Amino acid sequence: MTTQHTAPLRIVFAGTPDFAAASLQALIDTKAQNDYELVAVYTQPDRPAGRGQKLVASPVKQLAQQHDIPVYQPVNFKAEEDRQALADLNADIMIVAAYGLILPKAVLDTPKLGCINVHASLLPRWRGAAPIHRAVIAGDTITGITIMQMDVGLDTGDMLLKKECDIKPTDTSGSLHDRLAVLGGEALVAALEPLRVGQLKGESQDEALTCYADKLTKQEGEVDWSQDALTISRKIRGLLPWPGAFTATPAGTMKIHAATLLSTDEQEFENGEITMVSKEGLIVATGMGSILITELQFPGGKRMSVQDALNGKFKDQLQVSKRLGVTGDNQ
Which UniProt keywords are present, listed alphabetically (predicted)? Predict the structure, then answer.
C-alpha cells in the first residue's frame, strides 16, 4: 500500500472474540497520540451462552460499549442496507481481527484504503480458521502476527507487516493465544502510521509455502496411543483449552487437561499402558516414548490433579498396567 493519506484515519473495526478485543484495546489506548479516530465497531450478533442460554455480547461489543463506540451487528453483508450503513460511515480503513464473517468484495472495496487483517500466524504459513492451534500441534517453534491487506481469498492478501513470537515447549494454544493477542495489538498500532503516510508496501505470499489451518472438531481430541509421545504431547497442548484431548477408560471418557513429554525412547509396554503412578502424575506409554499426565477429568467430575483423582472414586482406573484408550476390562 503506497497511497498517502494526510487526514486523520477514520477507522472501522470488525472483530468478535477476546483475540480481537486486544487489538481494539490497543487502538483505544493509542488513539490520543496517533492520527486516527474509531468511528464504529462491527461484531457478531449476540449469542446464547451458559445454562440459561441468555444472549451474551461479544468481548469486542462489550469493550466498544464501555468506550461509547457505535456498534453494528449484521448477520452478514448480503442486505443492501447493511452495505449502505458501512458506506455511510465514510471510513478510510476497516481493520478486521477474528470477525467471523467472510467479507464480500463490495465490503472490502468500501473503505478508501480497503480492509486489513490482524492474522495470528506468519503468513503464508497457517492460513485459515485455527492458526494458533495448528502451529502448536505441528511443533512449530516460531509464529507471530501478520498484518495483511485483505482480498477475496482466504488469508491470501499481500503481507504488510510481521511480528514474530516464539512458541515455548510448554505452550498450550491458550497461553500462545494470549501472547499473540497482545502482539496483534502492537503490530496493528505499529502498522497504522506507515500505512497512513503510504510507507507500507505489500509483499505477495509465496503460494509454495502455504498450509491450511483446518477448523477444529471435538473428535480430533481423541488420543491415539499408537502415535509417538512427542506427537501426542503436542496434540494435548494444541487442543487446550478447546476442544481438549480425551481418551477412553472403562469408567468412561477421561479428559486430559495437562500433560508433558517425558521420553521419546522405545519401550516394552502396550500403547496407552500406565507404567507408573505417583502424586506427580501418570506415566503413560505411547507408540514411541511416554508422557506424564498431571491433570485430568472423569465424567461427572471436575478438573483435578492426578493426586486428587487417586483419592476419588475413579482411582481404580489409574493403576499401573491399566490401559488408556480401551473401554473393556484391561487388567
Answer: Protein biosynthesis, Transferase
